[in-house]
Amino acid sequence: MSQDIFVVAEHLRGTLADVTFELLGKGRELADATGGALVAVLLGGDAAALAGGLGIADGVVHVDHPSLAEFNPESASAALVEVVAQRSPRLLLVANTSMGMDLAAAVAVRRDVPLVAYATDVALDGDALVATSQLYGGKIYTESVLDGPSSVVSVLAGSFPAAAGKRDGSPTVDAIAAPADIDTGRIEFVALDEPEGGDVDITAQEALVCVGRGIQSEDNIPLAEALAKALGGAVCSSRPIVDSKWLPKTRQVGKSGVKVAPKIYVTLGVSGAPEHIEGMKDAELIIAINTDENAPIFEYAHYGVTEDLFDVVPPLTEKLES
Amino acid sequence: MNIVVPIKLVPDLVEELEIDDDGTDLDRDFLSLRINEFCDHALEEALQLKDAHGATVTVLALDGDETDKVLYTALAKGADRAIKITGIDGAATSRQTANAVANALEGIDYDLVLTGVQAADDRDGQLPVLLASRLGIPHVSVVSEVAIDGDAIHIKKEYAGGVTATLRAKPRVVLGVQAARETPRYAPVSRVRQIMKEAELDEVEAGDVGAGATSSVRRMFTPDKGEGAEMIEGDADAIAAKLAEILNAKRS
Amino acid sequence: MPETPTREIFLHFSTAMELVFYAVAAVASVVFLYGFWLRYRKIRRGRSEHRFDDLVGRIRRAVVQIATNATVRKGDRFAGLAHALIFWGFVVLFIGTCIVAIDHDILRWFGLKMLQGTFYLWFSLTLDVFGVVFIAGLVLMIVRRWVMKPAQLDYKRADEQGGQVDRSGYATDDMIFVWLLLVIAVTGYVVEALRIAETMPAFERWSIVGWVLAGPLSGLETETLVNWHVWTWWFHGLCALAFVAYIPFSKMMHIFTDAVNLVFVDERAARRLPPLPPAPDGNGDGDGEPKKKAAPRMGYSRITDFTWKELLDLDACTKCGRCHVACPARAAGTTLSPRDLILDLRSFANEAFGTPEWLTQRFGRESKWPLRDGGTATALDTDVATDVIRPETLWSCTTCMACVAACPVGIEHLTGIVQMRRHLVDGGTLDDNLQGALMNLGDYGNSFGESPKKRGRWTKGLSFKVKNAKKEPVDTLWFVGDFASFDPRIQGLSRTVAEVFHTAGIDFGILYDGEKNAGNDVRRVGEEGLFEMLAEENIAALDAATFEQIVTTDPHTLNTLRNEYPDLGADYRVLHYTGLLAERFASGALSVSRRLGHRVTYHDPCYLARYNGEIDAPRDVMRAIGLDVVEMPRCGANTFCCGAGGGRIWMDTSNEQKRTSEQRIEEALELDGVRVFVTTCPKDYTMYTDAVKTLGCGDRIVVKDLIELVAEAIEPESVEAAASDEAGAAG
What we know:
Chain B is α/β, with parallel strands linked by helices. In chain B, 30% of the residues lie in helices and 28% in strands. In chain B, helix 3 packs across helix 4 (127-135). In chain C, the strands form 3 sheets. In chain C, strands 3-5-4-6-7 form a 5-stranded parallel sheet. Chain C has a 4-stranded parallel sheet with strand order 9-8-10-11, with helices on both faces. A two-stranded antiparallel sheet of chain C has the order 1-2. Chain C starts with 14 loop residues before the first helix and ends with a helix.
């Protein structure tokens, strides 16, 4: 039974994703524990250039094919299934991201191996791997035992420090031939679009005021804007606010939005769904205002307030201005 | 175009979730279920496609306490057919759900499957990719826009930071919907009640939903509250003063 | 021998002239009847509706209202007086003219004559006196309209349609109406004077005005007088006939439509909304058994969905503008004015049914009215709730009922608004906030999206346990309501209410998670199915409990429980907490330990004062605890809305330029020495505390619910306070 830990190295436009380093850091730890190798899996991309950033891995496997030039769920799944079929790693770590979601379950079904999703931690306990998942909007955690020969775990971004996985080097790159079913033509890549520019870049702000469902109405956004102005920053939001079109997509923090790490992060009526937490938990100072004392946001915030935001924000803005 | 929308019902997070005596699952006796919000978006996107291009929309859900209500609501919103998958436990894993839906789809003529990209309870993976892999058809997750152009389906897939990819697919394909183009529509109660009187839900047996390779839960727990935020109390003004102090200290 | 007092009809007329007159009169009558028939045909296009119960009582009530002009006088004494003068002048002159016609055109052929002798003398006197009354009324109206210019007579629309609307036709119509009547009245006297001046018979002194005017004319040549008499007679006669012909095509029609409208008015309109209208192909027209149970109409989307009474409402409007100035949505600067809504629907109905209205509003080419997307739909297929009245306008209504209460002619604006909202809800044309609230109400029975299990959680921290009325009998069942149960700002007030009830020895309990939102505002939003569902669930819980009466702190809840639940089979005694406390103070069960002595003003909640007439009880309680109440100009049933009703509290209200809650606080700030603004409604409390914050006038006025003041007044005196009092007394 292989003791190798495989990590899917996610890349977009020639750049490795931050979360990949998080997984590599964890993968290193696990490989050291199992005594196996840590292997990074590159699907498409310029292996020579990307491998340089994967120095922490003992090796890199690369599948290359024209259909992998840009991420294509169909081709990438087929390629990854082939890698797992050939190498049977003890554990395949995939990020629970837009790309990762299209890969993890495909491998699990097609190779008939167990999958645990939404992991925030993976550890070796005796002979078994134990993955901790964050479920039910962060209200419940589970520990799943993976004692079979091979498993897949998809990990929430932000679960591990990225720094631990960043190491330059020149691991050996093993090419694996693309499988026959890599390009069925059933899905074609058309284009990659950047977000519409022109709006404030919230990743560059020192202070952010984030509005969530608790803001209640589009009418109340100016309240948050006034506070942001007093703090010298900008307004951002959780997903529901952008879905309601109260703020542009460029202001969305979290999974499918952007990841931010400002000095100050004040949340107004944000409950703290894991998808949001993922995007903001590295902020230096987090203050959460939410009338629901059980909101998960209070676990991540440094300071919490359960008074009504409509009562607290106006005097706060006033005091900051003076 | 025939669109199928498998709908997952998930525990209502508004209610307190309790863990059973074994400590490995939720206490399902008092659990109230509701439609997974991403599935609600998937349904909305399907109905938007129906409105724009003409399509039949079939909704599917595993039989359970709230299933009838959810399916009738979908019909009231404009779905054409609703199917209840019977003979499967409400506590089915995502993989079992995917198998049940795949079995149900055997008797259905479909081109496109839209379902929620994820759900609060899918510990063993998200339904869209599990289902597509079981059906042997392609999949795209985190979809925010779908357009139909003849036989081609144009899909917007979202990445972090607002970057999106446009992909083109041919039927059949499973899409994991992140957000519909519009807020899911409202189903007026009188319409739902009317539908309940008039329409019938079809039923299909789940068939063999064999769990496949699986992991076991050894512990379920609620996160520690220990390391939470320092709570600031008092009246609004006092709180504002204290917050201003903290913020000013950080700014300086 | 004195001459027999009488006069010759058609004096100095040749037979030919007489025939010409009859021919013209016949034409005028035909025009009148044709116009009248067109109007009648239009009303007949409305859906059937049963308004014929207690017809005798209805007619009696309408006759009294019309004879006394009570509804016109209410709220506007000047207009009421002027209208009453015109009304009675017109009625008497009309009867007089009828007598002349009967005498001349009927009785004459039987060799009979009424208009002679003493009868003629009294006839002359009466008509001359009422002619003066009539003219006085017209002059007052002219002064009011063109000198005093009250705001309600300004026809400027709330929804200006980009200036693409011309309502000068309305002003012309007004002008024709009043001046034509004045000309007819004045020329009537001139004709009379010229006739009398010819011979100056002594008995004509009874025609006092004619006699006085005839004096100076008597010196003229007989031939001149005869000529003038004939010509003025023709002028007077033609004007009168023109008036008759003009009636059905103008505002003058109100003399018929308003009389009928007042007969068929629903005295419980707005307080109790109708269920969904029956299916279009159902048994709505009473033509036998329904064949199949078809789906009900989800509100109104076509002009033919309106009932005949609602179409009659449109024609009954005299543009008096009382609803326009009373409407809070209009005051807030939204696109809604109840007057404009009625007039737009009227203009549209006339277009749809081919009913002519001669001087109406005209919309320019750039206007989006009535077919906003320039659609090809014919008028009968036009969606009235989208293309005639805009959704934004319909959503602006707070259902405060000020329009219905202000209307002197029994127009029920609110029903139509809610029916059109029902159609909007059915089609999903509702804002996200409202949709979210409705979904929460459907899923959890409260708009806060909280677990129903937490409904009774506010009782934590009380000095006693609140009885669970689901489990044990109570005397008084407290129906708490959403805001009082879940809004953190109101929960404190709820606890105070509980403590006061406890102190007052009231045996009360609550339904805990058995209670759902009562549905008053859900129904007014237009989500009828959800209202029915909530009501059914509440009624099941109420039926299972044992109690004598229901009390609530929320006037909205009170309204639906008291006025709408009975139709669903739940007929209970429902009190507002102020009523219950007033009873307790009166009976001595509650006593005051210290009289507060503040100078306060009191805001009557719409649903308490206007909807349910509960005006005295809160004031009795305030007096009992020693408050000095200074009334705002708009008080009692004439109160002004806080802006939260009809589901507005759940909606995006950014179309309000100036919130009514802020206008109301400013109204209170005008009062001398008032520092406390008292309310008795959870929504008011929320709205007004917000308004005080927005206006930044927290140092000048503070919003309190009456219960807080009651609690303060009945609290046992603390030991120190009592001690210092004694010391003071000793010193």
